[in-house]
Structures are given as C-alpha cells and as structure tokens.
Design a protein that fits this description.
Layout: E1 166-176, E2 183-189, E3 200-205, E4 210-218, E5 221-228, E6 236-246
Antiparallel strand pairs: 1-6, 2-5, 3-6, 4-5
Length: 250
C-alpha cells in the first residue's frame, strides 16, 4: 500500500470481482453507481421503502395484501358506486335516517315493510280509499257527515219530511168483532215515541161495515175505537194507520 501513490489504481488495474464489500467505504456507492434493475427485493431492508420513495401510481392492486386497506386509509368520498359490490350494503351499514324518498324505487315499499299504524290520514291521497278497502261495518254514524246520505243511497223507500225533527210511523192492526158488541177498542204502539201527543194520526178500516175514530193519544201509543154498522155477520179485518209528529230529541 505504501508503494502506491494516491489515485494510482484505476479501473483498468482492478481484476474482475476484486472489489468486495470490505473494500467499499460506508456510503461510497451512490445511485449513479447502481445499474438499472440491480437493486432487488433481497437488497431492501424491511421498512426501508417509505412513501417518499414510491412513485406516483406505482402501488397497484397486486401490491396490496388482502385486507390491508383499512377505513383509515380511504380518503373522504373515495368509495363510490362502482367500488361497491351488488348487495354489499346491508342494514347495519346504513345510518339512521339515511334512506330518504329519492333512494326508494317506485313500488319498492310493500305492505310487509309498513309498521302497524304507520299509515295515517296525511299519507292517503284524496279519493284513494275505495269501497273495496273498507272493512265490513267499518263506516259508522260518526264517519258520516250531516246530510251526506241522499235518498238514492237508501236501501228502502224513504219518507221525507219538509221540516226537520219530524218523525213518521205507520202500520196495520188486526181486529175482530165477537157477539153483538157494537164497538171495540184497539191500541197501536209506536216503535219510537213522539215528543208529545200533538202528532197527527189517520186510520181507516178495510171492512165496508166498519169505521174507526180516534179515542185517545199518548206519546208512545194511540187508542182507536172501531164501530160496526151492521150486527151480522161478525166483521173482522185490519186497521191501516199512519202518524206524523215531532220526534223525540236524542
């Protein structure tokens, strides 16, 4: 060594493979001295490749281990529709109130998805409740607006009065004379009593030998007297009657 002048040993003087690890000073091999592709995986110490050493876009799918990308590694808004597999978003992944009207497809909410009592008046469109949707006996008195039932909607022939609060009753009462009596009395009862005894009652017999007159009136019934005009044969028949007056207040 003492015979060699500094810088006297050039590349031409070195034999192939004569420069080994112990001949290299620490830090003496710069990037310029490395051949293209000469640094491979076994040359890199664990953890030696930092983010600063990676080129833009150099880490691709095959470089990532399964499960290595955690939520902390994802940027805000980086997971979009094309990143989600079909069926991958279950109920546990949805935030409270996150599903709104625009997220629901037309017709997607079936009856099975509605909670008991969840459909209220404001959810029903005008005219949407048809007769087929009403249960038997579901429409009661309190559901009917005053004056909403016209005569055309009644299943029986209606008797209309010009004045409010008027009640009408009618019927027929059987009678039969026995022996030589000239008069008999029959009582007609009203299914709903009138407010008082000021009602009007009209009655007639269907037998040509009998006539009837009004005896007395009470709010719930009236007494009729039937008079025969011939002694024989013993007449019998029906009294047809009708009564109209002020109805009892409910």
């Amino acid at each position: 060594t003492e015979h060699l002048a500094d810088g006297s040993v050039n590349g031409a003087k070195l034999g192939a493979g004569s420069v080994t690890t112990e001949h290299l000073a620490d830090g003496s091999v710069s990037g310029a001295k490395l051949g293209a592709g000469s640094v491979t995986a076994e040359h890199l110490a664990d953890g030696s490749v930092s983010g600063a050493k990676l080129g833009a876009g150099s880490v691709t799918t095959e470089h990532l281990a399964d499960g290595s990308v955690s939520g902390a590694k994802l940027g805000t808004g980086s997971v979009t529709t094309e990143h989600l597999a079909d069926g991958s978003v279950n109920g546990a992944k949805l935030g409270a109130g996150s599903v709104t009207t625009e997220h629901l497809a037309d017709g997607s909410v079936s009856g099975a998805k509605l909670g008991a009592g969840s459909v209220m008046a404001e959810h029903l469109a005008d005219g949407s409740v048809s007769g087929a949707k009403l249960g038997a006996g579901s429409v009661t008195t309190e559901h009917l607006a005053d004056g909403s039932i016209s005569g055309a909607k009644l299943a029986f022939f209606p008797v209309a009065a010009q004045l409010p609060g008027i009640s009408l009753a009618f019927g027929s009462q059987y009678y039969a004379f026995q022996g030589a009596v000239e008069t008999i009395k029959v009582t007609v009862a009203f299914s709903s009593p009138f407010a008082d005894d000021s009602y009007i009652l009209v009655a007639m017999s269907d037998h040509p030998s009998c006539r009837c007159i009004l005896g007395c009136k009470r709010a719930h019934e009236a007494e009729l007297e039937i008079i025969r005009t011939r002694l024989g044969p013993e007449p019998q028949g029906w009294i047809q009657w009708i009564a109209i007056g002020t109805k009892t207040e409910a």
